[in-house]
């Protein structure tokens, strides 16, 4: 075969991949790029109500948002929310993964059972927890009174710190199984002979965990930390349904503030500016996490 | 015999037998309302079915919505070009819809209905501004003080009329797990309503000055917030998350001795024992230096959002049908006692007064109607309406201010000042 005869085939092969990915790219453009471009466009206009027109306002919306203490308060609340969720979920997930990595009767059932909280719809989770934590008729308050931990029913969403703690625990309870399953998969990839060699060398369980398990789990944890941070930051449903950002704004994270600004205060331009700032912050945070947490040899 | 006529005859016979599609065009009209409880949806459907059966060229369909979402959903639906044709609403909502949609005045239609049924003027007033009438009033609601007579009798407490009596009663009743008075502190419409009900009973009814500036920051308002804070200590620990349902549940389960609510009749009858003699209702107590009680009252109405003349006409036909006294009585008793008539002939409708629950709780319903006579609505007092009330209401600024006082422990004067600043910002 001469090079000349190959040329048309190469050309058609060169086009084929583009043709194949074109539908996916088109879909991505329609569902991601267009909304992002639209959000940036709205953020540069003084638009009040969704669908209404507004004059070009340049960076005014951004300047107003950045000067608004409510925005910074919501950003701070988001930081508490993200860090709280990351800590609680990681702790619970590591413990659960280590337990599920053991051999004991019923371990297969336990591995399936644990993901139930993750697959139950959010609204069901919210209804269950609202009922459980209700001071009138809920199960948790009477239990705590019987245990002598409290002497009268407590409103778990009645004060700022209580509401935030309750929300973090509920959200973590929902999502830690996802992290645990990922960690379990990572644990099961660690060859058994590494542990056996360590045992032969006289390493105790704690030493084996910190010398073998933890370093080998770190790449998975890195991915989960970045993913978890982005996912936690964007959580809206659980917060909105349980506290709607209250009481008195104590659980008003940035997504909640963006929603309120757009659909309650009818300041679509400001809400879009907040969204753009939040997106940039998230991109920056993801890059920073990857840079600081990635194994050094990989980076070099 | 030719095959073609036979086939044609067969096709016609089949069409007849299985109910062929009608030859006339049917106008479909979409109704959004926020009366979500299943029994209310069922009653509305009953009326829609009767209307649709009598008007085969029109098909009304209902899509119940949530109060929490509707302020966001309607502008989005209008922007998407898919708004409802009819939308039940409260007065401040008309200002929101007018911002995004060229809402057409229904002054002529209201005049026509007024001639036939006689509207209560106070029901039309909140919808009449900027030279038009923006919704047709449908029903009235007013907040009252509901109390459990036996619990009050056992505690030796008389139904309170003034704030000092109210506080003393709440204090006396709050023992052995009983909530003396159930008051919400959620950032939600219910808390806006209870807060305003306390404000008007201290003479702080106006949110706006005549020039459109905010009149919220004054001594009377601060006094009302201070008093709410005093009472809130006798409310439920989870009241910071309450909406109407939680308050009703607290009352019906005899955990709350008193609550502020539009009605509790249905829940009380179904879940609270249903002893009519034990259900007390009174005007919201007033400040000691005020002469009489007032309350918050809503004239609920229906807006026509459709631009299509056929749909608008079909919508009007449905509302004409709904306001016919027999139908209107059935409509109002979808939640007996909650929805009060806004037309003169509706107030006398046999179907209203013969409803079994209205018969059983007649004295309570009569008291509620009496309470509604002195009803006011925030943003719609003083004879002027300003569009900013839509944003103030949608952001639950009265409730937000209350949260600062009762949850964060802020000084009422400071919180009210901040609330006034936020309201001023919303007017820009």
Describe it for me?
The complex is a heterodimer of chains A (300) and B (428). Chain A is mainly α and 300 residues long. Chain A folds into 2 domains: 1-43; 58-299, MetI-like (MetI-like fold, Orthogonal Bundle). Chain A is built from 14 helices and no strands. Chain A has helices at 3-43, 60-66, 69-100, 107-113, 116-119, 122-133, 140-146, 160-189, 192-200, 205-234, 237-242, 254-263, 268-293, 296-299. In chain A, helix 1 (3-43) crosses helix 13, helix 2 (60-66) packs across helix 13 (268-293) and helix 10 (205-234) runs antiparallel to helix 13 (268-293). Chain B is globular, with a radius of gyration of 24 Å. In chain B, the strands form 3 sheets. In chain B, strands 1, 2, 3, 6, 10 and 11 form a 6-stranded mixed beta sheet that branches. Chain B has 428 residues and is an alpha/beta fold. Chain B is 49% helix and 13% strand. The longest helix of chain B has 17 residues, at 38-54. Chain B has helices at residues 3-17, 38-54, 67-79, 91-100, 107-117, 121-124, 149-154, 163-173, 189-200, 219-232, 244-252, 265-271, 309-322, 325-332, 344-347, 350-353, 356-360, 362-372, 388-394, 397-406, 412-427, and strands at residues 27-33, 58-64, 86-89, 128-129, 132-133, 136-142, 144-148, 258-261, 279-282, 295-304, 375-376. Chain B contains 21 helices and 11 strands. The relative contact order of chain B is 0.16. Chain B folds into 2 domains: 27-141 and 298-372, Periplasmic binding protein-like II (D-Maltodextrin-Binding Protein, domain 2); 142-296 and 375-427, Periplasmic binding protein-like II (D-Maltodextrin-Binding Protein, domain 2, 3-Layer(aba) Sandwich). In chain B, helix 2 (38-54) links the parallel strand 1 (27-33) and strand 2 (58-64). Classes of the chains: A mainly alpha (300), B alpha/beta (428). Chain A binds chain B through residues 48-52, 130, 134-137, 152-160, 163, 242-249, 259-260, 262-266, and chain B through 68, 71-72, 75-76, 78-80, 96, 99-100, 179, 185-188, 236-241, 249-250, 253, 255, 390-391, 394-396, 400, 403-404, 407-408, 426.
């Amino acid at each position: 075969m001469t090079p000349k005869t190959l040329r048309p085939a190469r050309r058609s092969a060169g086009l084929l991949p583009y043709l194949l990915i074109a539908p996916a790219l088109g879909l991505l453009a329609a569902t991601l790029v267009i909304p992002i471009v639209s959000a940036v466009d709205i953020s540069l206009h003084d638009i009040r109500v969704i669908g209404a027109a507004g004059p070009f306002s340049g960076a005014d919306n951004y300047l107003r948002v950045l000067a608004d203490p409510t925005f910074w308060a919501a950003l701070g609340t988001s930081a508490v929310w993200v860090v709280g969720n990351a800590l609680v979920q990681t702790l619970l997930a590591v413990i659960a993964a280590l337990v599920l990595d053991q051999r004991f009767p019923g371990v297969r059932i336990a591995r399936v059972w644990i993901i139930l909280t993750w697959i139950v719809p959010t609204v069901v989770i919210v209804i269950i927890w609202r009922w459980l934590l209700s001071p009138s008729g809920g199960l948790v308050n009477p239990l705590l009174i019987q245990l002598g931990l409290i002497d009268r029913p407590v409103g778990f969403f009645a004060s700022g710190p209580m509401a935030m703690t309750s929300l973090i625990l509920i959200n973590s309870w929902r999502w830690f199984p996802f992290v645990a399953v990922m960690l379990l998969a990572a644990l099961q990839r660690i060859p058994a002979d590494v542990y056996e060699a360590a045992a032969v060398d006289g390493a105790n369980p704690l030493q084996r965990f910190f010398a073998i398990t933890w370093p080998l789990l770190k790449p998975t944890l890195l991915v989960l930390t970045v993913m978890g941070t982005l996912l936690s930051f964007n959580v809206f449903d659980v917060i909105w349904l349980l506290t709607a950002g209250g009481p008195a704004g104590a659980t008003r994270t940035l997504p909640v503030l963006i929603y309120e600004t757009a659909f309650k205060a009818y300041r679509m331009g400001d809400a879009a500016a907040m969204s753009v700032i939040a997106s940039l912050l998230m991109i920056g945070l993801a890059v920073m996490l990857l840079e600081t947490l990635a194994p050094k040899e990989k980076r070099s | 015999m030719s095959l073609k006529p036979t086939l044609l005859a067969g096709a016609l016979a089949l069409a007849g037998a299985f109910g062929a599609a009608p030859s006339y065009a049917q106008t479909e009209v979409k109704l959004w309302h926020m009366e979500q409880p299943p029994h209310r949806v069922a009653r509305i459907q009953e009326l829609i079915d009767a209307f649709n059966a009598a008007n085969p060229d029109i098909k009304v369909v209902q899509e119940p919505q949530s109060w929490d979402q509707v302020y966001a959903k309607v502008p989005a639906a209008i922007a998407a070009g898919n708004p409802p044709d009819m939308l039940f609403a409260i007065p401040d909502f008309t200002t929101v819809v007018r911002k995004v949609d060229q809402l057409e005045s229904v002054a002529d239609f209201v005049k026509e209905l007024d001639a036939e049924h006689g509207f209560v003027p106070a029901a039309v007033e909140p919808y009449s501004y900027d030279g038009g009438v923006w919704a047709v009033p449908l029903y009235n609601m007013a907040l009252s003080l509901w109390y459990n007579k036996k619990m009050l009798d056992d505690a030796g407490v008389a139904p309170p009329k003034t704030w000092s009596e109210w506080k003393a009663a709440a204090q006396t009743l709050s023992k052995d797990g009983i909530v003396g008075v159930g008051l919400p502190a959620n950032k939600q419409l219910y808390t806006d309503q209870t807060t305003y009900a306390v404000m008007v009973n201290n003479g702080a009814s106006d949110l706006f000055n005549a020039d459109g500036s905010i009149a919220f920051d004054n001594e009377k308002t601060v006094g009302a917030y201070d008093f709410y804070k005093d009472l809130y200590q006798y409310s439920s620990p989870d009241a910071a998350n309450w909406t109407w349902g939680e308050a009703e549940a607290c009352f019906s389960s005899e955990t709350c001795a008193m609550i502020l609510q539009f009605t509790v009749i249905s829940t009380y009858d179904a879940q609270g024992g249903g002893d009519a003699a034990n259900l007390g209702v009174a005007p919201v107590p007033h400040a000691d230096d005020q002469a009489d009680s007032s309350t918050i009252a809503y004239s609920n109405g229906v807006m026509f959002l459709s631009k299509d003349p056929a749909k608008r006409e079909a919508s009007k036909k449905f509302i004409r049908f709904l306001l016919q006294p027999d139908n209107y009585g059935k409509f109002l008793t979808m939640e007996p006692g909650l929805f009060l008539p806004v037309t003169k002939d509706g107030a006398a409708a046999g179907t209203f007064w013969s409803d079994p629950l209205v018969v059983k709780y007649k004295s309570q319903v009569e008291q509620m109607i009496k309470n509604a006579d002195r009803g006011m609505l925030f943003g719609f007092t003083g004879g002027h309406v300003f569009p900013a009330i839509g944003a103030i209401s949608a952001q639950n600024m009265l409730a937000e201010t209350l949260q600062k006082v009762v949850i964060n422990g802020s000084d009422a004067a400071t919180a009210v000042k901040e609330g006034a600043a936020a309201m001023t910002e919303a007017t820009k």
